Every structure is written in structure tokens, then in C-alpha cells.
Amino acid sequence: MDPDTTLDTPALDVQQEATDTQYADEWWRSAVIYQIYPRSFADGNGDGMGDLAGIDMRLGSLHDLGVDAIWLSPFYTSPQRDGGYDVADYRDVDPRFGTLSDFDALLAHAHSLGLKVIVDLVPNHSSSDHVWFQEALAASPGSAERARYLFRNGKGPGGDEAPNNWESVFGGPAWTRVTEADGTPGQWYLHLFDSSQPDFDWTNRWVRDEFIGILRFWLDRGADGFRVDVAHGLVKAEGLPDWTAEDGAATTMSMGSALESDLLGHAQQDPATPPYWAQDGVHEIYREWHQVLAEYEGDRVLCAEAWVEPLARLARWVRDDEMHQAFNFSYLETSWSATALRRVIAASLEAFGDVGAPSTWVLSNHDVIRHATRLAMPGHGAQVTEAAVSDDQPDDAHELDEALEPVEDLDGTTTAASLTSPLASDHPTAPDPVLGLRRARAATTLMLALPGSAYLYQGEELGLPEVLDIPADRREDPVFFRTDGERMGRDGCRVPLPWAAESPAYGFSTTGESWLPQPDLWRELARDAQHGVPGSTLELYRATLAERSRRDMGTGTIEWLTDYGADVVAFVNNGVTVIANVGEFAVELPVGDVLLSSEALSEAALPTDTTVWLLVTPAE
Ligand code: GLC
């Protein structure tokens, strides 16, 4: 697909009309949603682990930043073997994070500031500590308790072999064998993630009803919606058939084999689908949930974490009777290349627009390498899924080729280049931090100019990089341990935030405790060191969010501009001309008033790795 041929597609016009009328009240269509990872945001009780009281204390700073909503990663009762994505009670708050009353207070405070609150729902699996799983272990094979999860007999003599060959996303086998009550080796249970995260059997009506009860529990408390974890994984193919990825790659969260596809999937059939991802059966679950949310006032929202490609296929998650939003991971995985960016933007607007959904945009989250680091990595951390590899853009193809060349790791060994996600990557080389931050600022300034809903990840507004040198004995991500340290895991994007340059733990906690060590760099990047400082990353985010809102760019449409050259992404949205220079050379700017720029501009030229928003003076 050539983006330049899709600039004025009917799909965009249809989307615009609809936006103007029936969707006017739906806040989530254009919202900027800020992700809080509670363990690392702010610690209210001094134990070194963030909590709800800490979030409550710091909520004013998010209001000040100018976001519309917060999404809270899990704060539920959990042994924390996967940072809270291993839930032991879906209807309570873990004592580490506080109490249900703390949640109610936080919600009320957020609402009083005009901030919506989205909570995280983890329906693919529970913690093995959950009473449902403990009951299943105590019950016998074939019991109703076991039927909540995916227990199967093993293969081979004595059932000694796992029921199939699936691998865990976190490394190692996806099956663990249990010991039956009589002490004999017993059945196996499926866990697509850690062995402490057994997968539910979503063909079981009991499971479905329990989760509807959980949705109602949080909706009744006033939650404005749910971010749905692993929303492409709940239903597995019947018979749980063996699966080997064509390229021999280990199981990842993504659908795989998109190398052959283009972003909209026009060029081919859907990519080969592993039997544990993107099964058609998931959609009826979300239709049911949609109905539940629709009973409540106030436009409650479901957002899918679904690593599904191509975008046209992902759009099935947001048909008008299913979820409302889906994270746009194709965007997150795009390299810092003008061609690739134009393509993914056009494809996203088309794919989501076709089903009447807003596009979403995201650059960082708690599972991927922070974009202030990623965008300076070889290949810019791009998954090699982009159609750019196969088209007529020699520069981009060259860049991606380079990305595939072996690189030298921190420890001197060589591996293939690092990819977006530490789930999939080995240890990346330390990239140039100045370049990374410059590109990250330009990338965010571009992203926030796009119509639709944008997600920000805590700390990106401070320009925080990935922390690459966390000692092994301080790491907590199961990915690191399940791969014997071969994959670095995701701790590097989860380091507690710096609030105050001169305070213990940079203001994260009052005691100086911090569950992950904070680098010295946190001093200069602390929020109070950036607040009110012209040119700081924090002030850039504040100005950009304010301008986006003032000019209604979230509900606007894009009109592409093609006269700035191949290395530039340029368009007009609601009267604002947006120009991102992704190339090596400065680009001449049109005459007009500069609203904001990701770097200081000294003359009428836009330097490399810089994005500007301006009001162009009409030609006489
Ligand atoms: C999602 C979460 C990730 C978690 C995984 C298993 O991808 O974002 O943090 O480890 O699901 O629940």
C-alpha cells in the first residue's frame, strides 16, 4: 500500500462525519490516557513499592499535565510474580497497594479533577494462588473445579510428556505438571505466561459469568472502563493442536509472520494464526461485555491489549458491538522512518475508520523498551514487520537490513539486533541517549497531533530512558529468570519515577526505598527539575497536550502534505500544520506562526529529528 494514494480515502471522510454527530459525547474517541504502573508511580507509605495513596497524592500533577484519563495497571490482590498481572482476587486491592476504600477515594479524587479512571482486567489467566486454582488442584481430574482452567492429561507413557508443544511467552514450556492428591504425578495445566499464571478455559460458562460479575463489581464502583489484558488470547483452538512458527521463533505476544503482509493485510490472507492467539471465539465474549457496559451511564470503555496483525484484522476487536479501542502496536513497532510512519498512520486511520472506531496511538508501556531509548537502537527497535522492507524505499530497506545485522551486547557477545519488546529481545546495546531523547520528543509531538486517542506511559513526559544496567539480583521480571537471564525482561521500563531531584529516592518514597534501583540520571530528569523550565520534556508535553485540546486535534482529520520531501511526515489537522523531519537534513519551513516545536528553532528551517506545529500564513 502506498500511503500517498490513500490520502483522501472515503473512509476518512466517513469517519469525520460520524465524529461530528453521533460520537460527539464519547470522550474516549479523542482522549489522552496516561498509564500508571502502580508499583513504580509514587509510594505513599514508604515501603519502596508504589501504592494507591501515592497515586492519590500525585494526581494533581497529571491534571496539570493535561491528560484526560488514567489507566491503572493491576493493583489487585496478587503474589506479584508478574508485577500484578497474576491476580489472586479480582475484587480486592492488594495490601501492598492499599484497600478498596483507597481505591474509592482515588476514583472520587480523579473524577473531581475531571480525570476518567480505567482499570486493568486480566481475564486470560489468574494467579496460581487464586482460590479457584487452589480448589482445582485439590479436586480430581474431570471435576468442575478443574474445568475452570485448561487441565489435560499428558502424552506418552505415564502421561509424562506435555499435552502439546506450546511454549510460554516468557520462555520455557507452556505446560506444568501437577501432583495429584494421592502423591502421584498428575495432569498438566496450560500457562501461556509464567507457571504461576494458569490459563482459564473460556469455553466454560462458569468462567464467563464470573468475569461478568467482576466487570460489574468495578463498574458499580464507578470505574470508567477496562484495559483488557491479552485480549487476543482467551480462546484457544479446539483440541489445542501443536504449533511451530514458520520461522522457528519462540512464542511471542505478536501474531507472527507479518513479514509477508502489508499493514492492512490487502496483499495476502491473514498471517498464519497460532492456535492460542486471535481465535474467532473471543469476539462473542466481547460482544457480551459490550452489552454489560452499555447498561451503565457515562460511556464506559473497553480497550484491547491485542497483539494482532495486520491492522485490518485488529480492527475486528473494535467493531461497533465489541470493544471501543485497541492498542495500536503496529504504530509502536514502527521504525523512525518517514515512509514507515506515513504508512502506518494512513493504514491505522483506514483500518479503524472502516469499523467506525477511533485509531489509538502509543509509543511506550510497561512491556516495551521506553521510546527515548528504543528510537536510538539499531533499527529503532522496530519489529521487522513493516512492509517497508519490501517496497521501493531503498533507504528504509537499508535501515532495516542494518537492524538485522548482529550487534555487540553490553557483555561483548553478539546477537541479532534487539526488537521492540524485551519479551522478545536479548540485551540491547546502550544507544545514544541524546539521539534517543531527541527522537522521542519528536515522535511524541507527532503522535499527539494525530486524530484519535493516545496513550502515554508514566515517565515518558520526563524523557526517561530505559534503565539497561539493573543488576541481576535486583531484577523481578519472570522473563529474566525463565530465560536464565538471556532476555533482559521489562524491569528497565518500570524503574520508580523521579519526582523531586533532591529528595530521597528522588521523591518516589519518603524513606528513600525503591523496589528497583534508580539511576543517578533521575536527579536531572526529576519532575521538579523540569517543571516550569522552558524546553524541558515535561513542558513540551504540557504545551503539546494543551494545544491538542485547544485545537480539537483529537477529533480532527488528516490532510497529507506532500511537498516537504520523502523524509518528512507532514499533514494538516484542524488547521494546524504538523511537520516531522525524520530525515538527515534540515527542511525549509513555510511562513507562519510556530505553535510549538520539539526542539528550539533558530531559523526558518526544521532540523533533523524535530517536529513542529504551526499555523501557516495563507499565500497572498
Ligand atoms: C500483558 C501485560 C504484561 C503481562 C502479560 C501477562 O501483556 O501487559 O505485563 O506480563 O500480559 O499477563
Descriptive overview:
With 620 residues, the chain is α/β, with parallel strands linked by helices. The protein has helices at residues 10-20, 38-41, 52-65, 100-112, 131-138, 205-221, 282-294, 311-314, 329-332, 338-354, 371-374, 394-404, 433-447, 478-482, 522-525, 527-530, 537-550; strands at residues 32-36, 69-72, 76-77, 89-93, 116-121, 151-152, 175-179, 185-190, 225-228, 301-304, 325-326, 360-362, 407-408, 414-415, 453-457, 558-560, 568-573, 576-581, 587-588, 592-597, 605-606, 610-616. The radius of gyration is 24 Å and the shape is globular. Residues 1-20, 256-261 and 383-419 have low confidence and may be disordered. It binds alpha-D-glucopyranose (GLC). Alpha-D-glucopyranose binds next to loops.
Present the secondary structure layout.
Blueprint: H1 10-20, E1 32-36, H2 38-41, H3 52-65, E2 69-72, E3 76-77, E4 89-93, H4 100-112, E5 116-121, H5 131-138, E6 151-152, E7 175-179, E8 185-190, H6 205-221, E9 225-228, H7 282-294, E10 301-304, H8 311-314, E11 325-326, H9 329-332, H10 338-354, E12 360-362, H11 371-374, H12 394-404, E13 407-408, E14 414-415, H13 433-447, E15 453-457, H14 478-482, H15 522-525, H16 527-530, H17 537-550, E16 558-560, E17 568-573, E18 576-581, E19 587-588, E20 592-597, E21 605-606, E22 610-616
Parallel strand pairs: 1-2, 1-15, 2-5, 5-9, 9-10, 10-11, 12-15
Antiparallel strand pairs: 3-4, 6-8, 7-8, 13-14, 16-17, 17-18, 18-22, 19-21, 20-22
Helix pairs in contact: 1-10, 3-4, 6-7
Alpha-D-glucopyranose (GLC) binds near residues 122, 193, 253 and 366.
